[in-house]
Amino acid sequence: MKRFEEIPHTADWSFRAFGRDLRELFANAAFAMFALEGAIPTPEGAAGISRRIVVEGIDYESLLVNWLSELLYWQEQERETYQRFQIEEISPTALQAIVFGTPRGKIEKIIKAATYHNLKIEQTPEGWQVVVVVDV
């Protein structure tokens, strides 16, 4: 199963993420966001970073936006980029994860925010999918 695909969008960026379950879906959505930015980690030998992330929401859609927003916050605040996402717990109202990355290198285009525009998490015969529009 592919992790994500970019979707053409007139003003912003959009992608569709996939997952066999909700944990994989949320991890792949985060991976897609950093991949679209072209976030390049600092050179080999840089210290690895792990960070515990805890977010809440009122449903899975708000939880996803809060998850991606929290990752963007840490990227900006600590100048980090993330490549691996270990979702430890997930429910419709809470997510706990550990993210792994490195100090941030070059970013081709910075994502400012994850949006609710056309956001809907859907279960399909193959698993789960979501379309996410991000503001650049």
Supply database-style keywords.
globular, Archease, Possible Chaperone, Chain: A, domain 1, 41% strand, alpha+beta, 3-stranded antiparallel β-sheet, 5-stranded antiparallel β-sheet, 136 residues
Describe the SSE topology:
Layout: E1 4-7, E2 13-19, H1 22-37, E3 49-56, H2 60-78, E4 80-91, E5 94-103, E6 113-114, E7 121-124, E8 127-135
Antiparallel strand pairs: 1-2, 2-8, 3-5, 4-5, 6-8, 7-8
Helix pairs in contact: 1-2
Describe this structure in a few short sentences.
This protein has 136 residues and is an alpha+beta fold. The protein has helices at 22-37, 60-78; strands at residues 4-7, 13-19, 49-56, 80-91, 94-103, 113-114, 121-124, 127-135.
Structure characterization notes:
The chain is of the alpha+beta class and 136 residues long. 26% of the residues lie in helices and 41% in strands. The strands form 2 sheets. Strands 1, 2, 6, 7 and 8 form a 5-stranded antiparallel β-sheet that branches. α1 packs parallel to α2.
